[in-house]
Structures are given as structure tokens and as C-alpha cells.
Design brief:
single chain; alpha/beta; Rossmann fold; two-stranded antiparallel ribbon; 8 helices; 44% helix
């Protein structure tokens, strides 16, 4: 679910401006999975721009206050959600913890790092959601630690059906500050892409695997 469409369009413009998101259907990027994609996203770049970093923090905070009662703790997903989560927790005056992708194999063997308590209500902060797999592993880890996950928030999502299904199956609400549909529309309006590029980007979102095979 998207937060506010007007604010989402502003953020999409920022992401395109600083090249945190790059669009190039004619020369696709190759993801770690081997899948070819017309889009590459690295929202960590936003941390280098104080104005944009502040905008994102405030949008997260406002979304949390609008959608939920103030939680007991903010939790970031390693690694992209850690810095964003710290900024949000600081603004709200709340404790912070983060979730590793898997348990440490030494020391205390922790997957959840920080002072957490059973029964605490948590909002999980992520930077990017693709299929939702790694993000939802964090939710599962928190639930195993007996925290109440009120929802997850992310800067950006590709809006893939697989992600929607995964979040639904785990009964976790996802709210994003902007999304793929808004971003490509903004990119077209601001002449970052051509009409042909736009159609190709639409086709990719409908079936990423088929698009990859054709490119």
C-alpha cells in the first residue's frame, strides 16, 4: 500500500534526480539472481543527501503516526534498513534494534540485535522490497522473539505480485513511501525515459522473468 501519492511522486523525483534509481530498458542491469532488469535501485545513496534523507525520515515518521499508534520499538532490516530505522527511532524518541539476515555463528548467536522484550510492539523499517523474501525473514525472526509486528515500512517497492502474495501469506502489512508505478510515471513526465521505455518498464513489472528472457 502506498502512503500519499503526491508525496510519493516528490520522493520518486528525488530518487531519479540523485540516481538512487536508474532506468535503462535498452541496456538492462543484471541482478544477483541473474535476472535481467530495466531498473536498478540503491536507496542507500539517499543517506548522502541531507535534504532527501530528512524528507524520507519525516515521511516515515508521519506514516507511522498516521497509520499506527506509536510503537514500543523501531526495528531495521540489515543492512539497508538500519540507518533509516535509526533516524526514525531518533525522531520518535524510541528504542532501536535490527535484524540480521541470519543468526550469527558465534558469540550469542543473535539474529535480533538490541535490547528487545517480549510483547513489544514494533514497526519494521526496510529500504527496498523486491520479492519480500529477506524482509519477511526479519518479521519471522521478530515474531519468534515474541514481538508484535504492527507492520513494515519501506522507501520503495517494485510492486511485484510475488511480494504482495508473500506479505499477505505472512499477514504483514507493507506501507511504502513510493513505488514502481509512481516512479515510472514520474520518470516519463520529467523526460528521464521515452514512451517506448515506459511501455517496456510496464511489461517488465507484469512478468519480470519473461522480460528477462527476451533481453
Amino acid at each position: 500500500m502506498n502512503f500519499k501519492e503526491d508525496e510519493a511522486a516528490i520522493l520518486a523525483g528525488f530518487l531519479l534526480q540523485i540516481k538512487a534509481i536508474k532506468l535503462n530498458p535498452s541496456k538492462p542491469f543484471t541482478w544477483a539472481s541473474g535476472l535481467k532488469s530495466p531498473i536498478y535501485c540503491d536507496t542507500r545513496i539517499t543517506l548522502s543527501y541531507p535534504k532527501i534523507r530528512t524528507h524520507i525520515r519525516q515521511q516515515f515518521v508521519q506514516a507511522i503516526l498516521d497509520r499506527y499508534e506509536k510503537p514500543d520499538i523501531i526495528v531495521g532490516v540489515a543492512t539497508g534498513g538500519i540507518a533509516q530505522g535509526v533516524l526514525v527511532a531518533q525522531e520518535l524518541g524510541l528504542p532501536f534494534a535490527y535484524v540480521r539476515s541470519e543468526k550469527k555463528m558465534h558469540g550469542m548467536n543473535n539474529q535480533v540485535e538490541g535490547a528487545v522484550e517480549k510483547g513489544q510492539s514494533a514497526i519494521v523499517i526496510e529500504d527496498l522490497v523486491s520479492t519480500g523474501g529477506s524482509s519477511l525473514k526479519a518479521v519471522e525472526a521478530l515474531r519468534k522473539s515474541e514481538l508484535e509486528v504492527k507492520g513494515m515500512m519501506a522507501i520503495f517497492t517494485y510492486g511485484l505480485q510475488k511480494a504482495a502474495d508473500n506479505f499477505k501469506n505472512l499477514n504483514c502489512e507493507l506501507t511504502t513511501l513510493t513505488n514502481y508505478e509512481i516512479l515510472i510515471r514520474k520518470a516519463s513526465e520529467d523526460n528521464y525515459i521515452t514512451e517506448n521505455d515506459l511501455q517496456s518498464l510496464i511489461q517488465w513489472r507484469l512478468n519480470p522473468e519473461a522480460w528477462s528472457d527476451q533481453h
